Amino acid sequence: MNLILSLSLSLSVLSASSNMHSGTLLNYDSNNGIEFLQKQDEKYEQLKKRDYATLSEAEKLYFKNALINLLKNDVAYQEYLKLRNENSAQYLSRKKTSRETLGRPPKEREAQIEYYRKKGLLDPVAFVDNTKKATILFFSVFGKHPELRKLGPKDRLEVLSHFN
Predict the structure, then answer these.
(1) Residue 101: its pLDDT value, please?
(2) Residues 115, 106: contact at Cβ < 8 Å?
(3) Could you please report the per-residue DSSP string of 52-96?
(4) 2 vs 9: CA distance, rounded Å
(5) Relative orientation angle of helices 34-49 and 57-72, to the nearest 10 degrees
(6) Among the listed residues 141, 164, 154, the one whose alpha carbon sits nearest the alpha carbon of residue 67
(7) How far, in Å, are 19, 57, 82 from residue 75 at the CA level?
(8) For the chain, how far is it from start to end, CA to CA, in angstroms?
(9) CA pair distance 116, 91, nearest whole angstrom
(10) Could you tell me if 94 and 86 are in contact, meaning their C-beta atoms sit under 8 angstroms apart?
(11) Low-confidence residues of the chain, pLDDT below 70?
């Protein structure tokens, strides 16, 4: 009897996961299954339409958690994080020299490469290329999830840095 019950439960979990789309939150209630997921989607869609400042603290927390779950499954955001972490590691492991320059890097690619070479980076070409790719990915994520713009700076930082 327990074997049949566990098989039917695992089949219902599989069917629920196969019916989920990228915007569905990954919460699962074994009693209600798909209906629960659809209610979660509806609640998130309703919160997206409202002004973030008017939400209660519980609704803000729910909204932020829903965004975290969406970003967790977003391939572009994961690639952005990977590039950002590679660049951070490369920048922090640079050879510090007395020739370090102050100020912002120039806009031209070749001048940027020379700027970061003077900063002591081992591979300034990859650093500049990864920075450009990461910037493009970051703005594509904001394009896919415009609700990120609703968050204040503190909340946005909390959501975006959740994966560090």
Answers:
(1) 59
(2) yes
(3) GGGS-HHHHHHHHHHHHHHHHT-HHHHHHHHHHHHHHHHHHTS--
(4) 10
(5) 110
(6) 141
(7) 19, 29, 11
(8) 45
(9) 9
(10) no
(11) 1-39, 97-102, 164
Instruction: Give every CB contact of residue 55 below 8 A, 6+ residues apart in sequence.
Output: 47, 63
How many Å apart are CA 4 and CA 6, to the nearest integer? 6
In this prediction, residue 23 carries a pLDDT of: 43
Contact between residue 126 and residue 90 where contact means Cβ atoms under 8 Å apart: yes
Which tokens hold the place of 121?
């980076």
- pLDDT for residue 131: 94
Give the H/E segment covering residue 99: none
For residue 103 the two structure tokens come to 């100020």
28 and 16 Cβ atoms separated by less than 8 Å: yes
Instruction: Tell me the C-alpha to C-alpha distance, in Å, between residue 16 and each of 7, 19, 21, 35.
Output: 14, 5, 10, 9
Cα–Cα dist 141/143, whole Å:
5
